[in-house]
Specification:
With 339 residues, the protein is of the alpha/beta class. The protein has two domains: 196 residues, Rossmann fold (3-Layer(aba) Sandwich); 89 residues, SIR2/SIRT2 'Small Domain' (2-Layer Sandwich), CATH 3.30.1600.10. Helices cover 25% and strands 15% of the residues. The strands form three sheets. Strands 5-4-3-9-10-12 form a six-stranded parallel β-sheet, with helices on one face. Strands 1-2-11 form a three-stranded mixed β-sheet, with no helix packed on it. A three-stranded antiparallel β-sheet has the order 7-6-8. It is globular. The N and C termini lie far apart (48 Å). 41% of the residues are buried.
């Protein structure tokens, strides 16, 4: 892909890979360069509109509302140690969250990602979310990487026997802790707990990074590694677009409005991104984060990602199809009968 052929001068007197760093400019870049290998990094922010709180927001986030459980750390609620010792704590939290399939429904952003797949432009969607809404909107399994697992399936933490998720959710809603009828272990949704390894599918994703032509980062704080490392793993000529309420990533990005002296994460800083034992295997890609002198590749669309993504869809000529997909999803939600 001849990315550098579409550069023009921006307001900061530097070149931008996409030409004009606007919704229309990005849409034009996608069309003119026939971009067919988009990597989407999705975080909790894309599901807030579905009624699901994120983890880290003050006062409203999941972690902020765990005080009544007297945990040493909010993350203890999602540790195997506590699950084995006090499984009732986890299942009380799960009952309050009610993330079981059918309770929450996809948002406009989820349907936009599905549209990218339908258009043949999606290489992969890697999501931090455990709500399963990417599955619910019909995104093909082959294009989806659930980095932290999901509530769509369940298994025993002892013998790993799979369990029907509807039966597990039914027991949870009845105030019970589901146990394995084979080994007696606790049965839990297949979400990744702290201290557990991420699924192989996540690390397989690093084989995709050299192929990526455009990176869309949606609704994530980029505070959790190794997930956040994907953003510095793509080639230096790949545009990276952030859809978020506020700027994240610190020096990982240089946006058109930044001072020229501000530079993204470079190979000299690559050591700082290794904050998890599960991150082994992606450090080799950190070298690609170095900025090309005088050329900007990052775009930040601040605000509610439901609105900013809608703007991009309209600029791409997908506005009507996206609205139709959202409307069809609403009809399915209204007619849904829980098992």
């Amino acid at each position: 892909m001849d990315s550098f052929f579409s550069m023009t001068q921006d307001s900061a007197n530097s070149l931008h890979i996409v030409g004009e760093p606007t919704f229309e400019g990005l849409a034009r870049y996608i069309e003119q360069n026939n971009v067919t290998k988009i990597l989407v990094m999705a975080g909790a922010g894309i599901s807030v509109a579905a009624g699901i709180p994120d983890f880290r927001s003050p006062h409203t986030g999941i972690y902020a509302n765990l005080g009544k459980y007297n945990l040493n750390s909010p993350t203890d609620a999602f540790s195997l140690t506590l699950l084995r010792e006090r499984p009732d704590v986890f299942y009380n939290i799960v009952r309050e969250m009610d993330l079981w399939p059918g309770h929450f429904w996809p948002t406009l952003v989820h349907y936009f990602i599905k549209l990218l797949a339908d258009e043949g432009r999606l290489l992969r969607c890697c999501t931090q979310n455990i709500d399963g809404l990417e599955r619910a909107c019909g995104l093909p399994k082959s294009l989806l990487v659930e980095a932290h697992g999901s509530f769509s399936t369940a298994s025993c933490i002892g013998c790993r026997s799979p369990y029907d998720i509807d039966l597990v959710s039914h027991e949870c809603r009845q105030g019970k802790v589901p146990y394995c009828d084979k080994c007696g272990g606790v049965v839990k949704p297949d979400v990744v707990f702290f201290g557990e390894s991420l699924p192989d599918s996540f690390f397989d994703l690093f084989d995709d990074l050299p192929k990526v032509e455009l990176l869309l980062i949606m609704g994530t704080s980029l505070q959790v590694h190794p997930f956040a490392g994907l953003a510095v793993g793509v080639r230096p000529d790949v545009p990276r677009v952030l859809f978020n309420l506020e700027r994240v990533g610190d020096i990982m990005f240089r946006f058109p409005t930044d001072e020229p002296s501000l530079r993204p994460l470079s190979r000299n800083h690559s050591g700082s991104i290794h904050s998890s034992s599960s991150s082994e295997g992606y450090g080799q890609y950190a070298q690609h984060a170095a900025d090309t002198e005088g050329i900007c590749r990052d775009i930040f669309f601040p605000g509610d990602c439901q609105q900013t993504v809608r703007c991009l869809a309209e600029a791409m000529g997908l506005g009507e199809r996206l609205a139709a997909a959202v409307s069809e999803g609403e009809k399915k939600r209204e007619s849904y009968v829980a098992p």
